[in-house]
């Protein structure tokens, strides 16, 4: 091969390269063109350069310089074309298929415990109750002393109560709200106090260290146990169904006297006995009683003139018996598959 032949081949390559590069319509075609022009395996330039060693020694320097200039020119044109193709791909994006089904919208649901609280509040609102709230970090006096707990009551033990210091506790029940409400408002009082309470418990199928309670309090002249029984029985029929039967069992709480627990007929077996009601036919729903005169006096209310009644219930337990939930921990797992069942 002569120098002239070598240079003519280079010129031919340099002449055809721009059109071929411009014709590459996408990155795939661009890659093919690059391989055909300057590819190491089968590129035309590589073929031409293979003839370099056959040239007379004195011609090789010029031939090499010309070949390099052609190579640089082709590579610049390739880079420019590839950048243009990449920019076009970025702005056009992937093909848009308007017929594809949309991703299903996930609609949140109210937590089953909140549903119970909402339902309880709605029923008592109809009876003229308003809502009262109090602090979760509470003075021990409001949590125990004002509620007539004797100084040696086991509930005050460090094993049962989370203390925040000598005088402060995480409230173990919502009953401190009773005292705060009576200190702040004169009778007649009709309030409902929903809120979180804390116990020194570990999670197990029926216990949690934090759970909600709803407390109710009525204080007025001439309020009797008959009012308590009638109101709570009405509540049970509104909440569980018009044919729901209730029963009251004597109980003990430091802040009420007399005290009673209210059971409703088991909704799962209808009273015949099943695992939910432990074969008794009844499910305990709440604790209640006439406000102890000492509690009225602690809150600055004349216990000779006024009487009152109160109740407290656990919405989590109510939700459990309402829905047949086998383990209280499920309520606190935040498992969306469980929670979305309660969408209304
Ligand atoms: Zn039952």
Spans where pLDDT lies below 50 across 5 or more residues: none
CATH architecture label of the largest domain: 2-Layer Sandwich
Largest beta sheet, briefly?
Answer: 7 strands, mixed
Overall body shape: rod-shaped
Helices and strands: which structural class?
A: alpha+beta
Strand line-up of the largest beta sheet: 1-4-5-9-8-7-6
N/C terminus separation: 88 Å
Domain count: the total is 2
Q: How many beta-strand runs?
A: 9
Question: Which CATH class of the largest domain is shown?
Answer: Alpha Beta
The average pLDDT score comes to 89
Rg is 42 Å
Order of helices and strands: HHHHHEEHEHEEHEEEHEHH
The CATH superfamily of the largest domain is Bira Bifunctional Protein, Domain 2
Helix share bin: 25-40%
Bound small-molecule species: zinc ion
Number of helices in the DSSP assignment:
11
